[in-house]
Every structure is written in C-alpha cells, then in structure tokens.
Amino acid sequence: MWTRAFNSTNLTKPVFRLDPITARKFSRFRTIRRGFWSFILLTGLIGFALLAELFINNRALLVRYDGSYYLPTYGQNIPGTTFGLDYDYDTNYRELKKQFQEEESDNFVILPMVPYGPFESASKPGMYPPHPPDFSERHFMGTDGIGRDVFARLIYGFRIAILFSLLLLACNYGIGVILGCVMGYWGGTFDLLLQRVIEVWSNVPFLYVVIIISSIVIPNFFMLAVIMVAFGWMSMTWYMRTATYKEREREYVLAARALGASDLRIILGHILPNTISVIVTFIPFSVSGGIVALTSLDYLGFGLPPPTPSWGELIQQGMDDLQHQWIIASVVSAMVVVLTMVTFIGEAIREAFDPKQYTTYQ
Amino acid sequence: MVALDHSHEARNDGPDERERILAISGLTVSFDTGANRRVIAVNDVDITIRSGEAVAIVGESGCGKSTLALSILRLLDKRVSTTTGRIEFDGEDLATCSARRIRSIRARGISMIFQDPLSSLNPYMTVGAQIEEPLRRHLGLSRQHARQRTAELLESVGIDDAAARARSYPHAFSGGMRQRAMIAAALSCDPRLLIADEPTTALDVTVQAQVLRLIKQQLDHRRMSLVLITHDLGVVAGLCDRVIVMYAGQVVEEAAAVDIFQRPAHPYTRALLKSIPRLDGPREEALYSISGHPPDLTSMPQRECTFAPRCDVSVPSCRSQSPPLRRDRSGRRHRCLFAFESADHGVVPASAETSERIPPPHHEHVQPQKTILRIRDVRVQFHDDRFFPIGRRSVTNAVDGVDLDIYQGEILGLVGESGCGKSTLARAIVRLIRPQSGSVVYHDDELDLSRRTELRRLRRDVQFIFQDPYTCLNPRFQAWDIIAEPLINYRIADRAKARERACEYMQAVGLDPKLRHRYPHEFSGGQRQRIGIARAMVVQPRVILCDEPVSSLDVSIQAQILNLLLELKRRHDLTLLLISHDLAVVRHVSDRVAIMSQGRILECTETERLFTAGPQSAYGRTLLASVPIPDPGVARRQLACG
C-alpha cells in the first residue's frame, strides 16, 4: 500500500518508559529533600516493622544445642524439653542463654536486639512495674504498667497501625475512585442522586456507630476496617468526580469516542491515568489520617481488643500514669516523628505534582 | 493618516529625523528551564521605534516576539528569566528604573493589548470598572470624571450605548467587543506607545477587519506609536509602516512594509510570504511549504545561520558562519549572506522550485458525481440545563436544519465564523453530539445510527481530525499507541500488530518511526497534527472530517499539513470535509465551498464559481471582503474603505 517500504526492526521488543510527565514529577520530588528523606526513612521504618520479629522478640534468632541448630524466630513454639529443660511450654531463651553461658559449653543462643516480645510481661524480682528505661536489661524505653517492653509494643503497634491504614487507603480509594469516575463521566441524574446519597451518608455520626457496634461485639482488625471504610470512602468521590468532569471535556476524550473506544476504555485507559495526580496527592494525608483514627479509637477503648499492641492503648496508660513519664514520652514522640514524616512526604508530593509551578508573568 | 504619510516621506529622505520613542539595543532574554538548560528566546535584538510610527514584529510561534514585548514592560517572571541589554523609552532605561516608575510607565507611557480578550479581562469586575481603575489611579480623576471618560472611551472604540454597557460584565460582551474594551482600556491614559500582541488572532475575520480598522483610526487620531506583534502578514499589510521579521529569537529582516511585501530580501521572509494561501493568487498549484521546523532554542547554533537547515538557497558557507545583521543605505536591515543579490532576481529564487513539490490537487470535475454522504435535516439544539424544569427553557439552535451532499472523492470546504455551527455539524454527523433530528445516508444506505453496530461502521469509515493538536491527543500515551488506538478499538489488530501498523502510518505522514515512544508534548504542533492525521488514516477510512486542521498552526507548518492532506487524499481516494474559517485556505484546496452562518448553510457552490462570480449571499460577500490580503496597497484600500 505504501510505496516506501517500512523496515520493522525491534518492533516487538517492548520498551518500558516511565511516561515523562510522571518521570519529571518524580525527579522534582527527589529534589525536595525533606520529603524525599522522610520517604526513605518511613519506608525503612515500615520495612523494619514488618521484620520486627528479627529485632524485637522474646524468641532467639539462633540456638545451637548439642551440635544441631535451631531457628525459633518464625514457626511453632519449641518446647523447653528440646533444650534439656524441665518444662514443655515455650522456651525462655533469655534464661537459656544465661544457662549456656554458665555451663561454658559449645551451645549458644543468639538473642535479638531487644529480647522481649510485645505480649510478655518481664517481671523483675523485688520491683513492681512499670520499670524505667534500662539499657543493660535492654528495655530501651522501659516497660509499661504490667511489665511489657514499651519499645516492642511501639513497633508492633506501628506495624498494625500502618497496615490498617494502608488497607483502609486501598479500600477507600478503590470505592471512591470508581464511584467518583463514574459520577463524573456519566453525570446527569445518576450523579445528582449519588451526590445526595453521599451527603446524607457522610452526616451519619461515625463515632456513635462504632461505639454501638463495639458495645455489642468486640471488633477485630477486619471488622474495624470494614466499619471505617464504610464511613471513609466518600471524600475521594468529590475530588475524582471533579477531576473526571474536567478531563471528560477535553478533546482527546472526544477523539477517543470518535475512534470507537468504549466507555470502559475511556474511563480506565484515558481518563484515569490523567487524574492520577489527584489521587497520589491525597495518599500521604490519608495514611496519617488512618493512623490517627485507629490510635484515637484505641485510646477511647473502642478499637482493637487488648492485649493487641497499640499506640492508643499506650497513650491511655501513659495518661493515667503520668509519674512514669517514659511511657507517654515514647509514644508521643513516636507519633510526632511518624506523622511529621508522613506530612513532609505529603507536602513534597503535592509540590512535585503541582502543575502551576512556574508562571511567565509577574 | 497624517502620521503614516509622514513616515513615507521620511523613509524616502533617508534616515528618519523624528523623535525616537523606544530604543532597544542588545536585548537578550533567556529562560531557565531547569536542569542547566537555558532557552534563549530573544537573542541580541536592536529595535528603534519613532514617534507616530506603526511597526510590525512578525514571526512564527516560538520566534520570541511575545517575549520581546513582555520584556519591554518588564512583565517577565524574574525567577525564571534573565534579561540583558538596554530598553530606552523616552531616554529612560526601563531595565534599571524602579518598580514604581515602571508601573507608571506601564499605565501612561506604554500600553499593551493581549491576544486573548477572554482571559485578559477580569470576569468578576464590570468592564467599566476595569477601564476606570487606571484613570483614577494614574490620572487622578474623580469617580465621576473617570466614569464619564470611560463612557467616552468606549464610545470612541465603537461600543454603542457606552454608559450602560460599561456596567455589564465581560461575559456579556462578544469577543470583538471585549477586544474593543481592551483597546479602550489601553488607550485610557493616552499612552505614547501601544504594544498589541496578536490583537486579532482570536477573532473572526469580519470582526478582525473591524478591530484593525479601529486600531488604524486610533493611530491616526492620536500621536501614538504602535508595535503590532503578529504571525499574520495579511494583518500587517494594511496597518504598518515598517516590518521586522524575527526567526529563532533574532531579527532576520527589517524594512518598510512595501519592501517586505514586494521585494523581500531574506529567504525566510520570502518563504513565509509564499506559504500563505492567498485569495488573489493563482489557485491551481500546491502550496509552497518551508521544510522542517524552527530550531530548538536550547541548542542554538552559534556558528551557522539559524535558518540554513530550512533554507532553499543555502550554500555551504551558510553553515560555517553566522551572518551579521547588515544595514543598507535606506536603513533596511537583514541577516543573510546573499540577500540583496538574490532579492533582485524576483521573489522566487530558481532553486526553491525544486523543494519538496507535489503535483497540484486535481480540480478537474469528474461528472457525474456519486454522493458518498448525504446529510438531511440535521438539527442540534443546546438548552441550558436547569435543575427545576420550570418555565421556558432557552434553546440555542446550533445547527438548524442542514442538508448537505458530500460527493465521493471531493474536498468540500465548509466556512463560517466561530459559533456558526460548523464544528457542531461535523460532530453531529458521527454522533459525537446527539442531534435532535437528521439522517445520514452513507453509500446509498440509510443508517440507523441509534444502533450501535451501524454507528460503529460509520465512525470507522468516517474519521475525524481535530482542530487543536495540543488537546486532542492523550498526554499519557506514546505516539504509536495513540495511532494504534482505533485499530485496537475496532478489533482490527492485536496490540503488537497495531503498533506495527502505527509505525507504517507514522512514516506515511512524514514522521520518523524512531519517535514512536515519544509523548505528545515532546512533539511540535505540526508533528502532533501529523499524529492526528495518522490516527485518522490508520483504519483506512473513506471520508475524513477535518475540523480546522491547520488553524492553530504556523503559516509554514500549515502549508506542510495542507499538502500532506492533499497527498493522502489523492493516494487513497479519500473524501474530505474541510472545515475552516480561513477562506484563502478553503479556496486553495477545495472543489466546492459551503458557507455557513447561524446554523444554516447559505450557499454551496463550486469553488471556481464562488470566487469568480462572487458569493450569492450578503453574508458571503462580507466574509470574502474581510479577508486580509498580504499586499500593502490592497490592504490599505480595504481598511480605508470599510
């Protein structure tokens, strides 16, 4: 058909290229140092929390006993009898380590950095908890009112909070983005009705609902998430609806229709990628919102049931017992640090994704 | 006319003795575009404007003409731009004077009119208040006086019932009236110099003619100088005494208007003049087009002529040295090594004829013609949506019962002003807008377009090219995915195959397939329009509806795209509906012309007949008379008699 022959070399080879608009936004994000370093630190912290068992645990990392090696960190309890002790419940590795050292044999125990679990009350003879921070005992932030290590509970609490928050984010955004897009794209009566429904729904007092539910049943992780998603998806629909309205009027959408694209393809393939900056900008603020929400519920006692490690529960303890400042001090500083970092990231993303960075006129 | 006549005498007598009002010397403006990249938008420019003189600065987009204008008034953002050089206004250096002083000069010494009257008036203030503001601030008039003066000003720019109109908001004004109001505001403090940045580009031809006439009147009445910045040489011809042509941030030629049009010296000026389709020129030939596109100003060649890569008459020595700006005895300047020699050989140098030429479009009439698309009684109404359907809804008839036959293999031009319903009609044909009534017969089949399959069949065979190549391509798609999209939508090919085909078509429309991974914003306007054309061509349609395909492009690129469309049409036996507001373009390429106004087709005749016998309708005659002609003599008569 074409007179000029076309040499099709390398056509099948897929070439991945980050679309340059996004690439430029990322490189701009990298230049905002405060946000970028917060991002690195927070990612590291989340990684640390996810692998917390390797660093903060009452189980040993590695045990050598009579020529064989044991890795008790993950997996089933190893009963004390395995190591020649006189009990068949979970081994106390701190005791085991002392015992091995006294025996001066080839056997040894490698304990994690903080050899306490989040649920375990370590009692000290002759003293009532809470115990103040003690580096020799490796209670870096002391213990709480029933002798549990505060640092362990902080990290495990953070893990739950951040996972909860991310789950919340995914669900809220999933529902909010889809409904918002649909509202914006089809508009008209459908949009009008759904808007009113959302307005009514967002006026239902969330806290009362949670109080009522948790007075009937004790909520677990997923139930709490479902309740919070049910009341949290609305805000995203507003932003997505407006963004979709704006994109829908642009000519490339008209062009796509003229070229026979289906509605689904227009929404998913054309409009959604162009509204992604709206979504991304809100993510960090939603994450911090999720953490704060869970912490407040726990503080009020309507959150996850005890003995789940949680920041809210720690704040409550600390507030009740202000003489032992280390409890309240550690949890408040942890919250300040994490939330500040998340906010820095959010600010940096917002700035990096801001289309109006430069103007030519003064 | 006093000032203008004066200037003619002065030019003939050698150096001009009149007072210099603006003297720009060695002006260089560069923009910091991040990552150690600098764009030199204006490169060592010297310009002198004398009192009472009208000077045009002409060039294609990106040549630095608007930047130059903004830098005169120090309106550029200092954080991203650097300006060096002297700008002397009335003996005062604007580059170094205080911010307070420059504000007073902006109001009383130099005024500016911007391109878009829609966005340069504040929608939340009445038109009157926006004109009163500078009057009270800078001239210290009382509220009463300012109001009175505003009414006088509005009246003088031709707004009837001015006192009442001053109290309305910009949205109640039409585009032409807004531009008139802007002119009134600019003239309010009696400036000595008016800078008009593309004042009529956003306006319709008939309105453009009125606004140009108004500017001309004001120039004659006041002792004011004008700097007219435009890409349209037709606009320049009637209004200006002197023309400065810019290319890639440099002045390439400066001469009296008559000389520019009749004896252009620089090859770029000559090429520019030749690539404009003209109402008074010969019709039966392909448009001349300047090959390539303007240079990237970040990688400005220092050791060669910036125009050399696109120049028809360049020789090896053009590549080895940057030509200086030379001045001859009459004060004429140009930046070309050979300009004066070649200028004597007439307008077209011989070698130019060999540049990328294609045979002229076929205008021989193949009788009898078969109708490929028969459109009957198309009506599109817009009504304002109200939540409570109480009372009468106001209805606008955008397309008001149009019948149109498009013959197989022809190019049908559809002309009319903005808002006449021509785009709406085209969109209604393929149901991008749902018409209230109307039928489409395609190839003798009456199609029931409410049925999905039939609509899909029509949309596949009748493709669309959009006006604005900046918005009609999805910014997140790579070029080949944009072109491949219809193939995937119509399930003609799978992704890999579609992309391969997309590359073939990139080649066919003159794009290097190596650029296939680029995103729309990495292409120039002309290249983007080529992508749009490739996307329309890839499903091998029978008819293409082109909605103002060249109106947002520069003159030289416009010619390239028109020639490409003609070539594709010839090769693939296509039928084109060419929507345009530009009669000259339509005259040049189409076989028949339909004139549309207020939702109706007024007449539909063969092009030859329309332009020899003249339009039948009164509106058609006005339209034809308003087209600016790039010839100072004709244009001046046109402006004077209207």
Verbal overview:
The complex is a heterodimer of chains A (362) and B (642). Chain A is mostly helical and 362 residues long. Chain A has helices at 20-31, 33-50, 93-103, 150-186, 188-202, 206-216, 221-232, 234-248, 251-258, 263-300, 311-320, 325-352; strands at 62-65, 68-70, 108-110. Chain A has a three-stranded antiparallel sheet with strand order 2-1-3. Chain A starts with 19 loop residues before the first helix and ends in a 10-residue tail after the last helix. With 642 residues, chain B is an alpha/beta fold. Helix content of chain B is 36%, strand content 22%. Chain B is built from 23 helices and 22 strands. Chain B has an eight-stranded mixed sheet with strand order 6-7-8-3-9-10-12-11, sandwiched between helices. The two termini of chain B are 15 Å apart. The A-B interface holds A 2, 4, 6, 8, 11-12, 15, 17, 19-21, 192, 250-252, 254-262, 265, 270, 273-274, 358-362 and B 70, 74-81, 387, 427, 430, 432, 456, 459-460, 463-464, 466-468, 471-476, 478, 485-486, 489-490, 496, 499-500, 503-504, 507-508, 513, 517, 519, 521-522, 532, 535.
